[in-house]
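Dear Dr. H.,

I hope your travels went smoothly. While you were away I took the liberty of generating a structure for the chain from your last submission, since the lab meeting agenda had it listed for discussion. I wanted you to have the full record in hand beforehand rather than looking at slides cold. The sequence, exactly as received, is reproduced here:
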Amino acid sequence: MRRFWQTAMVSLTAATLWGCNLAPIYEQPATPVPDRFSDQPQMRFDSQTGQMQTQMVPAAELAKDASLTQSAAQTDWRDFFQDPALLRLIELALEGNRDLQIAVARMDQAQALWGVQRGEMFPTLGAVGALARQRTTVPGASTNVISSQYSAGIAVTAFELDLFGRLRNLSEAAFQQYLASAEGAQAVQISLVADTAIQYFRWRLAQNLVALTEQTLASRQRGQALVQARFGNGVASEIDVVQARGLVDGAAANLAGFVRDEQTARNALAVLIGQPVPDDLPSPASFDVDQVLTNIPAGLPAELLVRRPDIRAAENQLLGANANIGAARAAFFPNISLTGSVGTVSSSLDELFGAGRSAWAFTPSVTVPIFAGGSLRANLAQTQARQREAVANYERQIQQAFREVDDALTGEATLNAQLQARRAQAQAAQRFVQLSNARFSSGIDSFLEVQIAEVQLFDARVSETLIGFETISNRVNLYKALGGGWDSAAVQSQYEQPAFGFRQTP
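The corresponding predicted structure, in token form, is as follows:
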């Protein structure tokens, strides 16, 4: 009898695991973007002639001469960034950033929930023991009869035969949610690396603007002293003195603003790394675009489907929605559950495990939905609507990724020329200041010309510094958009193989 029971349980389990599946066959949606990135308006500035040349080139040509041959996704951030101080800050961010810790915790939660749902597919076995005592009054007898019954064994409680794939699809949906959360943790890390880099360069930008403004303030204070001396000798007018004073006041106001920007950038960086910015950071490299790789191969739009974890997460969500449809369809079919036990029964405790005391019970039950007030159809309609939403979200994620890469490639094609033009403008403004000072010293022009030249020089230098920062930020954004910055050691994600050969998204 025991062998029969074991054989029956194995057969029922096999029938459950290999029953039919009512989930729709998954078909990956068509990519809603062109098969290649847009041609870019590559611009070159000739500082000798002052002319800007524009030529439309394919996006792939932007990295034709790149020394880097592998894709951005295969380029570790330690190789991409060259600044020692930034590398240290990224390490601190990966260790202490709270957003990344939240993402990892959510991934662990999703993995645990998948384990809970997967456990519903297996029989629940438990050891049971019971004692029943009963007193019976016999009519006409002077005493009552007290009887006892002892039992012990193993019981299966409400094991559902998954003949129509309801439990399997729920488990598959939970598994896809786990994969999506794991991809989400990767996406958070990629964003964290890029955000830390951009915030660090914003901090360096503010430091450079503070240094530039301090130099400008010192230069204008010297100019003010010279004008004041000339005024005392009767050479300069009071208007010249007032104008010189205005230049000093303007520089002082700019300095206060840039000092504030430096402190707020440092505060934002401290939030990203999860602690105050250390004072013992390695010496930073020079603040220019060479602190990141000079070229990044753009690749093809189709490669984004493999590189970017946010796109893979969207597809996992779509696969999970597909599985939920199968579970909703299975609810229309009969639900078959089994309850049983096998063990021993005896009226005497010392004979409970003796020979000839075996007992078993087998209680199948079938529930057939007849009327549910339309809730089953409504639930199916809901899962189908969520599946359509997941398709649209997947397509939108691809479109967003395509746009981010295209925008960054446009920046690569134009920002360098803009930077060269700003540098030429700053050099011309510097020469203008020299000539204006010479003409003022010779008494040819008033100090107004010097004032105009000083303002133009400061504005040109600030613009040059800002464009330099924008050039660096754009390159970091391109690296991020192409899926770079992922480090598997930072997020301990182990993709468990699903039980019994369930589908796993690569």
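Two observations you may find useful: The beta strands are 40-46, 51-57, 125-137, 144-161, 335-346, 358-367. Residues 78-120+164-333+383-501 form a domain with the Outer membrane efflux proteins (OEP) fold (CATH 1.20.1600.10).

With kind regards,
E. W.
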